[in-house]
Automatic annotation (TrEMBL):
Molecular function per GO: hydrolase activity, acting on carbon-nitrogen (but not peptide) bonds
Acidic residues bias: start-end ranges: 474-490
Protein name, per record: Amidohydrolase 3 domain-containing protein
InterPro entries, per the entry: Amidohydro_3, Metal-dep_hydrolase_composite, Metal_Hydrolase, Metallo-dep_Hydrolase
PANTHER family xref list: ALPHA-D-RIBOSE 1-METHYLPHOSPHONATE 5-TRIPHOSPHATE DIPHOSPHATASE (PTHR43135)
Region listing for Disordered, in residue ranges: 460-490
Domain annotation Amidohydrolase: ranges: 392-451
One Pfam family named in its UniProt record: Amidohydro_3
Species per Swiss-Prot/TrEMBL record: Saltatorellus ferox
Length: 490
């Protein structure tokens, strides 16, 4: 079974279409959740898909003119020129000779698509954004329009130790169907939470780990005293104490030593404390928010003291560029907030000084990833284009929105490049992915054609005023009464 899809673009209205694709199509356009972009294929996964494009940007080598991408079972199995790659006889074919195939953007850090960015609790590592993600949130729909194929959803910055995040695809009716990587990291903040000073924030952050150490020491002491409290508590909470959960293991931390901890069955560790235990053992990544250069020093001290520097990524405000040498020395990667230009006035001359933050980290040799906050002028394609305009090589700018965030998320083998074995995610652009005149025409996730711009009802309404049936309220007919005399009721 095969089919070919082709779409024609006209010159007239092209500028309008191009600009409209960069706009957020949120609830202000159409408020009905039922009008979400429908998939082209109803099946959960297409067995084989072949994508023919005029140009394939693999980010794993040189671009391929007139290329073919083969996806089987949700994974890329071949990428090459039409002369070198054979299309399986039973593959569904997407033939777009006038378009550019791209691996799609990777959102390194975002706090959208959830019902609430932060909780009131200072320390809540036991929470999980899995319980907060809304699959029909307009953010995910907009992400498809902007060519984002996976995103790292974390809680917001107004916290001390927040819950656990997860990496998802921007398509699916359930969180399970969207999930790419559960427990993708824990959000922490070295910057003061609302109502805290820098000193009290730092103390609260250190205190979270001091409380963990105290709890583990007490567990060991209870075990030595023959007190079975922790086992009884675990069973009361419904935890299974069999298999690996019934075994003890020495603490695997680069900074901590707790004698006798190997006697503690891991299943007996309280679920409220277990996530931070995973942090100090290097099993759980940390995304640390820093609102100033001073916060960077706090973050690095806390991470070094507790042995998770190697597993930490700094999420930075644009003023943190001043700490670039310190960050370089620590060997950590960074995620930059959406405002890439930092402005300040010289205290002596009063002259405004502008610093393009990604260029500072690029020149310092610090791996950096871009992030986006809106779908118009701060989306990932625009962030990368700004980097190119500021003198950063195109390859490095594209990497900051694809392969670098994929590496930070531990997904280098799955996303960020078109190569054999990667997830079957392909975005088809009308032109260069970094051009303001290009639009996302199609998105394929895991080999499934999930977005088609020509069928996007919100884009159609914005660009040409077309309104789908049933979405426009009809004018009510004027009430003329029932013909009876109502004078007695007045």
């Amino acid at each position: 079974m095969s089919f070919t899809t082709s779409f024609q673009n006209t010159r007239s209205g092209r500028a309008l279409l191009s600009a409209a694709s960069r706009l957020s199509m949120g609830a202000t356009v159409l408020g009905a959740a039922a009008l979400f972009v429908a998939p082209v294929h109803a099946s959960a996964q297409v067995a084989k898909t072949a994508i023919k494009a005029g140009k394939v940007i693999t980010l794993n080598g040189e671009p391929i003119e007139n290329g073919i991408i083969i996806i089987e079972g949700g994974r890329v199995t071949a990428v090459g020129s039409q002369e070198d790659v054979q299309i399986p006889w039973d593959a569904e074919v997407v033939d777009q000779p006038g378009m550019t195939a791209f691996p799609g953007f990777v959102e390194s850090h975002v706090s959208r698509g959830i019902d609430r960015e932060n909780e009131t609790l200072d320390v809540a590592p036991f929470l999980n954004v899995r319980d907060s993600i809304d699959p029909v949130n307009f953010y995910f729909e907009d992400a498809l329009r902007n060519g984002i194929v996976v995103m790292n959803v974390q809680q917001g910055n107004d916290t001390v130790v927040a819950g656990q995040g997860m990496v998802v695809k921007p398509y699916g009716m359930t969180v399970e169907s969207m999930m790419v990587k559960p427990r993708a990291g824990i959000k922490m903040s070295a910057a003061p939470k609302r109502g805290k000073s820098r000193a009290t924030q730092a103390q609260a952050l250190r205190g979270a780990f001091e409380d963990l150490k105290r709890y583990l020491d007490e567990m060991v002491q209870r075990k030595k005293d023959g007190d079975d409290y922790d086992r009884r508590e675990a069973l009361y909470q419904g935890r299974e104490l069999e298999g690996e959960a019934a075994k003890g293991k020495a603490l695997q931390s680069e900074a901590w030593t707790i004698e006798g901890f190997e006697r503690i069955p891991r299943g007996e560790v309280d679920e409220k404390q277990e996530p931070l235990l995973h942090v100090i053992e290097g099993k759980m990544p940390v995304f640390m928010w820093c609102g100033s250069a001073a916060d960077v020093h706090t973050a690095l001290r806390v991470a070094d003291t507790n042995g998770f520097t190697k597993h930490m990524t700094l999420v930075l405000d644009n003023s943190c560029w001043k700490a670039a040498p310190k960050i370089k020395a620590a060997g950590v990667s960074v995620i930059l907030e959406d405002n890439l230009a930092h402005r300040e006035r010289d205290p002596i001359t009063g002259e405004e000084i502008e610093t393009f933050v990604p260029k500072v980290f690029h020149d310092a040799g610090v791996p950096f990833a871009l992030s986006s906050s809106t779908d118009s002028n701060r989306s990932l394609w625009f962030q990368a284009a700004q980097c190119v305009a500021a003198g950063i090589p195109r390859e490095a700018a594209l990497a900051a929105a694809t392969s670098v965030p994929a590496s930070i998320l531990g997904l280098s083998d799955r996303v960020g490049a078109l190569k054999s074995g990667a997830d079957g995610h392909v975005v088809l652009f009308s032109g260069d992915p970094l051009s303001v005149t290009s639009v996302v025409e199609h998105v394929i996730l895991d080999g499934v054609h999930v977005y088609d711009r020509s069928k996007d009802v919100r884009v159609q309404q914005l660009t040409d005023g077309t309104r789908p049936p049933g979405t426009v309220a009809e004018e009510p007919e004027e009430y003329e009464g029932d013909g009876e005399d109502d004078s007695d009721n007045q």
